[in-house]
Amino acid sequence: MNPEDASTDAHDEVPQRCGLVAIVGRPNVGKSTLLNALVGQKVSITSNKAQTTRHRITGIRTVDEAQFVFVDTPGFQTRHGAALNRTLNRTVQGVLADVDAVLFVVEAGRFGLDDAKVLGLLQNEGLQGKPVFLIANKLDTVQRRSDLAPWLKGMQERHNFAEFVPLSAQKKADMDKLLAILKPYLPEQHWFYEEDALTDRSERFLASEIIREKLFRLTGDELPYASTVVIDKFEEEGNLRRIAASIVVERDAHKGMIIGAGGERLKRIGSESRQELETLMDAKVFLELWVKVRSGWADDEEHLRSYGYE
Questions:
Q1: Looking at the structure, do residues 150 and 227 belong to the same domain, yes or no?
Q2: What does the alpha-carbon distance between residue 174 and residue 94 come to, in Å, rounded to a whole number?
Q3: Is 33 annotated as a binding residue?
Q4: Residue 115: which domain range?
Q5: Is 278 among the domain residues?
Q6: What's the main place this protein lives (predicted)?
Q7: Residue 95, annotated ligand binder?
């Protein structure tokens, strides 16, 4: 190759972009669903129960020269003062210190007290000029689009948002549009992860999250939020995973709710968890589940640390 051609190729090469993007909002506003849609695969669990997301979950999407590192955060807790809630809020605040941009997720056309508290957190954290995007999620639930104009005007008066993005996380076209809007805001720097990476979380962590999702979904509103899942054993033998996990609750009555009549509910939690884990890990999974009572664990800092809360 002619040396002049080589220098031309190097000059024409588009520089890589990479940045951390936090997804924040009140509980149950659709943050985890949005993360999964942006990544293109499930990396964060979802349910209608508040506090489904309790950890910092990283989802990675690489498109052309840009790598988006999305950080799904727990919904900022405003209603309870237990140690668990304080830990969740510290996780949110810790994430905000590191990011290059923030997606502030609200339901399109709505803005309540809990939304206002999260927005106040963003303003108080002193994001030093970092762009905050107003993500109006669940656009498909808005009956009249004309109602959005006065709502948007009110939102713009609350904060100087970098961009306003109305969307539905169920629509791939909306996800592509959001990625295109975000791309210029990512710093020019080398990617943090391999091109095909989807998350920085281990299979062991994902196993505990999937079990916890099934627990929340199959107990409905019966089970209080003070329940968690601890992986006691995770063994990998080629294409086989042997997993033993404990579901930890605060009271004997909660244990009965999870086990169900004749053990049927616990069997279903185990069966649905195993099926999803086999799909996620592309491996055969043997799963054992136990239910243990640990009174007051959610308000005990030592217990929280031992169960993996940051």
A1: no
A2: 29
A3: no
A4: 3-185
A5: yes
A6: cytoplasm
A7: no
Quick one: tokens of 288? 């054992």
Quick count: other Cβ atoms within 10 Å of Cβ 39? 22
Is 130 known to sit in a ligand binding site? no
29 is in an annotated binding site: yes
In eight-state DSSP terms, residue 289 is E
- 54 and 178 assigned to the same domain: yes
Q: Does the annotation list 137 as a binding residue?
A: yes
pLDDT tens for each residue of 91-123 = 556 667 778 999 999 999 999 998 998 888 777
For the whole prediction, is pTM greater than 0.70?
no
Q: Is 27 annotated as a binding residue?
A: yes
28 is in an annotated binding site: yes
Q: Do 273 and 228 contact (CB within 8 A), yes or no?
A: no
* Token pair belonging to 276: 């999803």
Task: Read off the DSSP letter of residue 263.
Answer: G
Each residue's pLDDT tens digit, 36-62:
899 888 777 665 444 444 446 678 999
Instruction: Determine the distance from the C-alpha atom of residue 161 to the mean position of all C-alpha atoms in its chain, rounded to a whole number.
Output: 22
Query: 120 and 214, same structural domain?
Result: no
Q: Which CATH number belongs to the domain containing residue 25 in this structure?
A: 3.40.50.300
Q: Is 260 annotated as a binding residue?
A: no
183 labelled as ligand-binding?
Answer: no
